[in-house]
Amino acid sequence: xxxxxxxxxxxxxxxxxxxxxxxxxxxxxxxxxxxxxxxxxxxxxxxxxxxxxxxxxxxxxxx
Length: 63
Hints:
There is one protein chain. By secondary structure, this protein is mostly helical. It has one domain. Helices cover 65% and strands 0% of the residues. The protein is built from three helices and no strands. Helix 1 (3-21) packs antiparallel against helix 3. The longest helix has 19 residues, at 3-21. It is flat, with a radius of gyration of 13 Å. Belongs to the phycobiliprotein family. It is found in: Endomembrane system. One of its GO terms (biological process) is photosynthesis. Keywords: Bile pigment, Chromophore. One of its GO terms (cellular component) is phycobilisome.
């Protein structure tokens, strides 16, 4: 698999994961596959940033 394709796949996973963690996913963006799950309420910005940094590390390691 070319590195560029792998990096793009990881970037898509990053966008999906951070949207779910930060609860920014919406029916408009999810389409027919949208599913809302019950989660604890609160500020998850630190967790979103940490998860994003791990995805960024993977992308930089691939590149």
